[in-house]
């Protein structure tokens, strides 16, 4: 959410907030589906694209609504994805203070970054691959080999903790299962 997003519009973010939380929450009745799938059926991300609510956006103005020499987009805020329309977003125009449905929006994200693989992730992945390959070749012959492998994993974890490359749970920043 941008700093200039009006507090009075926060209630307009609730429908998508509820959908997002239900997508993340496991259903109590059927454990292998989300709460949203249990309540509303399967969620189709191709029909209803979710974006960062409250972020600044450039909202495209259709040629019928604007003059010949006017800008093709206006400043506004993204509110939610319309559940009643295919790939349509509800946005609030800053100048007119009106809500508008549009299918063309350019989001002005400032803090969203792509996830990266850290050095700790690469080291732990390499160790896990080595252990898998040893197991494929015939497994561990005796308990000394098992202790040596565990010592390798512990040593890597200790090194990564001392280098502050692990997260607060003592795991690398990514997961390689």
Distance from first to last alpha carbon: 33 Å
What is the tally of helical segments? 4
- Measured as a percent range, the helix fraction is 25-40%
Listing every helix as H and every strand as E from the N terminus to the C terminus, the arrangement reads: HHEEEEEHH
Number of strands: 5
User: What is the CA-atom radius of gyration, in angstroms?
Assistant: 24 Å
Shape: elongated
Major beta sheet summary: 5 strands, antiparallel
The portion of residues forming beta strands comes to 5-15%
Calculate the mean pLDDT score and round it: 79
Question: SS-based structural class?
Answer: alpha+beta
pLDDT under 50 segments (min length 5)?
172-177
**Lateral arrangement of strands in the main beta sheet:** 4-3-2-1-5
Summarize the structure.
The protein has four helices and five strands; from the N terminus they run ααβββββαα. It is an alpha+beta fold.
Per-chain topology:
Blueprint (H helix, E strand, L loop, with lengths): L13 H11 L10 H6 L15 E5 L12 E9 L7 E5 L5 E4 L2 E3 L11 H18 L6 H20 L15
Helix pairs in contact: 3-4
Please provide a written account of the structure.
By secondary structure, the protein is an alpha+beta fold. It has two domains: 7-107, no CATH class; 115-177. The chain has helices spanning 14-24, 35-40, 119-136, 143-162, and strands at residues 56-60, 73-81, 89-93, 99-102, 105-107. A five-stranded antiparallel β-sheet has the order 4-3-2-1-5, with no helix packed on it. α3 runs antiparallel to α4 (143-162). It starts with 13 loop residues before the first helix and ends in a 15-residue tail after the last helix.
């Amino acid at each position: 959410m941008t700093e200039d997003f009006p507090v009075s519009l926060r209630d307009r973010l609730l429908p998508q907030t509820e959908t997002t939380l239900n997508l993340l929450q496991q259903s109590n009745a059927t454990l292998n589906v989300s709460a949203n799938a249990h309540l509303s059926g399967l969620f189709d991300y191709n029909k209803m694209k979710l974006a960062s609510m409250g972020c600044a956006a450039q909202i495209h103005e259709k040629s019928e609504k604007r003059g010949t020499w006017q800008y093709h987009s206006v400043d506004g805020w993204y509110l939610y994805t319309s559940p009643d329309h295919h790939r349509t977003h509800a946005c609030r125009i800053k100048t007119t203070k009106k809500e508008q449905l549009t299918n063309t929006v350019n989001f002005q994200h400032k803090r969203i970054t792509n996830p990266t693989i850290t050095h700790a992730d690469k080291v732990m992945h390499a160790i896990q691959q080595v252990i898998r390959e040893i197991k494929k070749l015939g497994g561990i012959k005796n308990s000394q080999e098992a202790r040596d492998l565990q010592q390798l994993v512990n040593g890597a974890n200790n090194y990564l903790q001392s280098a502050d490359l692990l997260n607060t749970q003592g795991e690398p920043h990514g997961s390689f299962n």
